[in-house]
Amino acid sequence: MSSLAGKTALVTGASRGIGRGIAMRLARDGALVGVHYGSNEAAAKETLADIDRAGGRGFLVHAELGVPGDADRFWAGVDAGLAESGAGAGVDIIVNNAAVGASSDFQGVTPEEFDRLYAVNVKAPYFIVRQGVGRLRDGGRVINISSGVTRIAEPRVMAYGLTKGAVEVFTHTLAKELGPRGITVNSVAPGIIETDNTATQFTTPEAWAAAAAYSVFNRVGQPADIADIVAFLASEDSRWVTGHLIDATGGSLLGV
């Protein structure tokens, strides 16, 4: 029997990149997966189709994050998807993956962009979980996707890094809040991962080689590298791990 058979998982930002990899892995392990997306419906449908083709089960959840009422719309979409899937009202796993990145450095970030970063990357997961704790079953899992830039100083994405630092505080504090119910809360901090976003940043072989050189393995990470860690944290095997941050940067800049 698959390790997540009979479980329901929700993955925000699951239409592309790391979120897509996580959604597909959790579905492969037997979970019914809520595939959340904000704007790219076509990509979300592709993720769901890939889950279906692999023998998994899922449903779409549409809610733009970072705007008033986003958590309400998110949970309304979850409730509708669960009802259509014939599943119970409860959920077992919440993966807060959706995020936006900074487009400017320390000097260039505007107050409006700063507010947008916090609205999507911090406020949205906070209230999604807060509204969802009544639906989250005892023994459940909350997994927050952070970033290696909370450890590795990158001034060009400072504002983004601040939001992920807040996510890490949210993680270990929420772990204490939900611990009495047997719910674990952990963070995963990816490094450079090959996605459609990074493809626009590293456009030459030299740029990819430089990105790979950050890791002690001399390669750029793949979404599956993160999804496999999330799958462990979602499973019963991780029951004694909570309030923890897993560095998933491939040993980037160790000793620097």
UniProtKB/TrEMBL annotation:
Keyword Cell membrane: no
Keyword Ribosomal protein: no
InterPro entries according to UniProt: NAD(P)-bd_dom_sf, SDR_fam
Pfam families linked: adh_short_C2
Keywords of this entry: Oxidoreductase
Similarity annotation: Belongs to the short-chain dehydrogenases/reductases (SDR) family.
Name of the molecule in the record: A-factor type gamma-butyrolactone 6-reductase ScbB
Gene (name only): scbB
